[in-house]
Amino acid sequence: MPTSPLVILAKEVEQAKAPWGLAIYRTTYSPISDTHLDAITELITALAKYSIRKWKDRNPNDPAKLAAKLALQETYQPIILNDKAKFEGMTLEAIRAHHQALVKRPVGERPLTNKYFCILVDDEVVQTLAGADPAALISTENISIDYNKYWVKAIESDPENEDDKGWMKCSVYALWNLWIDTDDGRPMRSYEALYPRGVYCG
């Protein structure tokens, strides 16, 4: 039986004795982003942990999987790339190059993050998430609406083809799903037809 991605990552975290998390690139330094960045980061963190809690595969009550879920929630820590001189207005190509270099650092120097994609917080993402309350999103009764309403931009680190857009909107509810799906090596362009509203929902 294939090992659950929960267990695989939890073991990597344990062996590395380091936290894991999404790499988040901030490319906007507008006044509204200054006001809301910390809250947006907290929202992404809360919903990343929530997406782990609610995710299920075969035998979801397996003790190893339940322990892995707890461990991953406890050790999650986002990698915030936040340097105005370096990242303000950075192009997608430059973000990809930076992210590729980041995940290729020697063991012990590189953060434990997904090597296939990173998260972009630009003006559009700030406008989308500013003022959103993580607790309200987690307890929402309007799942179908909120899944498509609240999203971040996921940037593919190395698009398969030059013609690929190389990024997509990802629901904040589906961050763990995207982690798993990209680990399988499936290109982002393959999801566009699956989500007609334009937001990946896991």
Describe the structure concisely for a colleague.
This protein has helices spanning 5-16, 31-54, 63-75, 84-87, 92-103, 123-129, 134-138, 143-149, 175-183, and strands spanning 23-26, 79-81, 117-121, 151-156, 167-171, 199-200. It is α/β, with parallel strands linked by helices and 202 residues long.
Report mean pLDDT, rounded to a whole number.
92
Shape: globular
Strand order of the largest sheet: 2-1-3-4-5-6
Q: What distance separates the N and C termini? A: 23 Å
How many beta-strand elements?
6
Structural Rg: 16 Å
Instruction: Give the uncertain stretches in residue-range form.
Output: none
Describe this structure in words.
It is a single chain. Helix content is 46%, strand content 12%. With 202 residues, the protein is of the alpha/beta class. The chain has one domain. Strands 2-1-3-4-5-6 form a 6-stranded mixed sheet. The radius of gyration is 16 Å and the shape is globular. The model has no long low-confidence stretch (mean pLDDT 92).
Layout of secondary structure:
Elements: H1 5-16, E1 23-26, H2 31-54, H3 63-75, E2 79-81, H4 84-87, H5 92-103, E3 117-121, H6 123-129, H7 134-138, H8 143-149, E4 151-156, E5 167-171, H9 175-183, E6 199-200
Parallel strand pairs: 1-2, 1-3, 5-6
Antiparallel strand pairs: 3-4, 4-5
Helix pairs in contact: 1-3, 2-3, 2-6
What attributes does this structure have?
single chain; 202 residues; alpha/beta; 6-stranded mixed sheet; 6 strands; globular
